[in-house]
């Protein structure tokens, strides 16, 4: 990876601060657990053992799975971790999200935040990871993202189940007057085989809960797993299939009023003048209030029903000040190009790239420019939140990816202490990073102050949602390679420019904090790939465009998967080397990567002759700790290019639920293919031009290919799942189109160049 002497001052700064911070605050404080939030909310006859387990006297077992369920199945997998060690099946437990609490902090979401590839296990890399883990404890962010939920929960949630089981057994041993070693557990009961006596967990839960936790927690060997490692029935499916009111948009409360928002269509701009008179006189309208948050300016409409609020929002006549960013897409692109001409921050610098190119023969040089557009999250459930402010207490119901942030920011907005806020996290109809933002919650909280104690459900129109996102940033890249006499690359130089996701997120969530050091999300998916090339440089530049950008499924890897793997395909073609064979040779130092490439090539029968009018393309990316190869097969039809089949091989280290992993790989690939085929957000007069699915469409069912998935477990560390199928999708499709048509498409969406059937 990068040489320490070249990049230490720029990229190790955060990691060093993390390590120093961990030492300074003291080991004891770091190890001290947060209070168990369940103790304050126990029902009659309930006992709690830790923040993840409640058991009632009637043997009702409740597991808290404190990560956002947005369709990815995380509530099932997290519950299975606890249930496995508790010796109960998922059919015997209830699963809930639980309250907003620091006890549910996600340490893993930060651990890979340093400037190191996942496979880098040097002393420095490991020290920074440890330091960032300490920082994660002190920030105590309860968040869902970064494909980190299973990695974060794998130890702590199994330990919670195992500790509870050991305490239950100890209590049963006391009650039965036998040795704990002579007791067995199964299906929520404790059995003494010698006497035939048994007790349910519920019968001893109260006594067990007051015992001291075990000094040593014994976890099951993998060979003894009954739930983990096997597909499980999704605990959220019955409610979803039967239309149960589980989403934020389903919330109904007594005496509820309704609302919507009309925010400035130019980000950060204030209203120059506004005429509310027509809207205020419309039937059903109760009140229109100004809104001002870290997300911008606008108006909240309070009404007797949602439709009345929508129609009143349309009737508001407002003029908005000029934006602080360029007005149109072409001008924004010019800013990116200007930024690309600057030096940037080096995140990988092997060998001596400048010397390698200095004497390169022209015929050995491969050059390309790539570009991708802004993208919206476009969740199926529009942004919404329900809030009630009464007697100095705010209750808020919403699907969200960060409950402690909802609590903190809403407390600041309303002007009360955080302990006066109750966050009720619902299931959500899609997240993809959009619901780590707080705009929908903040607007509902502010509007709840104006309803006299009545609850208000605030629902965004699809158009408001599409035009007020925190977008996946647009990006451009310049790429250069020098080939050796054998056609293999001996030098690559990669340079990318895009607006900073980190800086943009801080402006909205933590405006008092300035971004520190380079934003590695600009180069994620390029600087951290397992390719061994003698001279290898990757640079990133933060372009000064302040349109809100944020985490979009797979974040920087969604951009650089396309850039990096498209360019690698170009290198293979220029060097007259098979793309699969070239990758295997370049990644020979990383057996897990090679096995993934070999597996996906084998199941796709790569290299076998295809019928005329068909072709395949492949791509590989390492993201969020998992190694993924994808091959896309396309066919030329009279109606356009048809994506026929997609093969995916993924090494996730430890596969906790193969069924959910397969579903997530397919879901993420479809998300990536949809964006690659036809999605883009463009700007005119400072405003987003797209408004709904008619002009920001996704892949339709009739376009969806057949998928074949192989799940591998070769790498010694667990990787993530929810985002990893997205980065290789676009480049594999573009590479397949090149193989079919000879057209090398370097700009997304692909529909600007080819038609899809």
UniProtKB/TrEMBL annotation:
Gene Ontology terms for molecular function: oxidoreductase activity
Origin superkingdom: Bacteria
Residue ranges of every copy of the Aldehyde oxidase/xanthine dehydrogenase a/b hammerhead domain listed in the record: 242-324
InterPro entries in the cross-refs: Ald_Oxase/Xan_DH_a/b (IPR000674), AldOxase/xan_DH_MoCoBD1 (IPR008274), AldOxase/xan_DH_MoCoBD2 (IPR046867), AldOxase/xan_DH_Mopterin-bd_sf (IPR037165), N-heterocyclic_Hydroxylase (IPR052516), OxRdtase_Mopterin-bd_su_IorB (IPR012368), TAT_signal (IPR006311)
Keywords attached to this entry: Membrane, Transmembrane, Transmembrane helix
Transport listed as a keyword: no
Entry keyword Transmembrane helix: yes
SUPFAM superfamilies: Molybdenum cofactor-binding domain
Residue stretches spanning the membrane: 12-30
Protein name: Xanthine dehydrogenase family protein molybdopterin-binding subunit
Organism from which the protein derives: Mesorhizobium ciceri
């Amino acid at each position: 990876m990068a040489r320490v002497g070249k990049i230490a001052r720029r990229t190790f700064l955060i990691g060093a601060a993390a390590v120093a911070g961990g030492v300074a605050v003291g080991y004891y404080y770091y190890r001290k657990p947060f209070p168990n939030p369940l103790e304050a909310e126990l029902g009659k006859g309930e006992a709690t053992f830790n923040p993840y387990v409640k058991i009632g006297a009637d043997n009702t077992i409740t597991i808290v799975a404190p990560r956002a369920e947005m369709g990815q199945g995380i509530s099932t997998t997290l519950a299975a971790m606890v249930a496995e060690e508790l010796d109960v099946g998922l059919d015997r437990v209830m699963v809930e999200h639980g309250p907003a609490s620091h006890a549910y902090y996600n340490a893993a979401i930060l651990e890979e935040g340093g400037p190191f590839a996942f496979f880098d296990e040097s002393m420095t890399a490991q020290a920074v990871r440890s330091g960032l883990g300490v920082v994660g404890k002190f920030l105590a962010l309860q968040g869902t993202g970064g494909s980190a939920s299973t990695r974060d929960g794998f130890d702590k949630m199994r330990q919670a189940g195992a500790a509870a089981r050991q305490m239950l057994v100890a209590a049963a041993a006391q009650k039965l007057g036998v040795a704990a070693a002579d007791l067995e557990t199964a299906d929520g009961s404790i059995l003494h085989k010698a006497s035939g006596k048994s007790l349910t967990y519920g019968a001893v839960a109260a006594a067990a809960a007051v015992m001291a936790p075990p000094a040593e927690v014994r976890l099951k060997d993998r060979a003894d797993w009954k739930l983990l490692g096997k597909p499980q029935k999704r605990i959220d499916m019955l409610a979803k299939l039967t239309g149960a009111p589980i989403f934020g948009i389903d919330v109904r409360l007594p005496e509820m009023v309704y609302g919507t928002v009309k925010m400035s269509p130019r980000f950060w701009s204030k209203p120059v003048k506004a005429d509310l008179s027509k809207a205020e006189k419309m039937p059903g309208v109760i009140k229109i209030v100004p809104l001002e948050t870290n997300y911008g300016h606008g108006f909240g409409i309070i009404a007797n029903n949602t439709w009345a609020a929508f129609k009143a929002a349309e009737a508001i006549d407002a003029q908005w000040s000029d934006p602080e960013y360029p007005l149109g897409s072409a001008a924004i692109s010019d800013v990116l190009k200007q930024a690309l001409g600057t030096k940037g921050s080096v995140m990988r610098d092997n060998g001596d790239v400048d010397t390698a190119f200095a004497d390169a023969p022209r015929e050995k040089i491969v050059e390309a420019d790539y570009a991708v557009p802004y993208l919206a999250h476009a969740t199926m459930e529009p942004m919404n939140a329900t809030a009630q402010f009464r007697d100095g207490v705010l209750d808020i119901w919403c699907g969200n990816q960060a409950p402690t942030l909802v609590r903190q920011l809403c407390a600041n907005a309303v002007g009360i202490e955080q302990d006066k806020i109750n966050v009720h996290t619902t299931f959500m109809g899609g997240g993809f990073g959009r619901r780590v933002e707080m705009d929908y919650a903040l607007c509902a909280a502010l509007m709840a102050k104006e309803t006299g104690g009545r609850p208000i459900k605030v629902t965004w129109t699809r158009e408001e949602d599409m035009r007020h996102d925190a977008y996946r940033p647009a990006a451009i890249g310049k790429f250069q390679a020098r080939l050796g006499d054998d056609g293999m690359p001996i030098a690559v130089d990669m340079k990318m420019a895009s607006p900073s996701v980190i800086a943009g997120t801080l402006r909205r969530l933590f405006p008092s904090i300035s971004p520190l050091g380079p934003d590695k999300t600009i180069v994620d998916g390029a600087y951290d790939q397992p390719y061994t090339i003698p001279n290898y440089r990757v640079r990133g530049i933060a372009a000064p465009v302040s349109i809100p950008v944020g985490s979009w499924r797979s974040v920087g890897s969604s951009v650089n998967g396309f850039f990096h793997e498209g360019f690698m395909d170009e290198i293979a073609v220029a060097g007259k080397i098979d793309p699969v064979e070239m990758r295997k040779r370049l990644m020979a130092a990383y057996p897990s990567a090679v096995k993934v490439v070999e597996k996906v090539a084998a199941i796709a029968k790569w290299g076998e002759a295809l019928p005329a009018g068909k072709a395949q393309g492949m791509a590989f990316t390492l993201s969020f700790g998992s190694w993924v190869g994808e091959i896309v097969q396309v066919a030329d039809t009279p109606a356009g290019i048809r994506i026929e089949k997609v093969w995916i091989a993924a090494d996730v280290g430890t596969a906790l639920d193969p069924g959910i992993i397969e579903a997530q790989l397919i879901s993420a690939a479809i998300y990536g293919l949809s964006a690659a085929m036809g999605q883009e957000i463009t700007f005119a007069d400072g405003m987003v031009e797209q408004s709904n699915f008619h002009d920001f469409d996704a892949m339709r069912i009739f376009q969806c290919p057949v998928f074949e998935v192989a799940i591998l477990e070769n790498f010694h560390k667990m990787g993530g799942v929810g985002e990893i199928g997205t980065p290789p999708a676009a480049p594999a499709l573009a590479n397949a189109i090149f193989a079919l048509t000879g057209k090398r498409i370097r700009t997304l969406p692909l529909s600007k160049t080819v038609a899809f059937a």
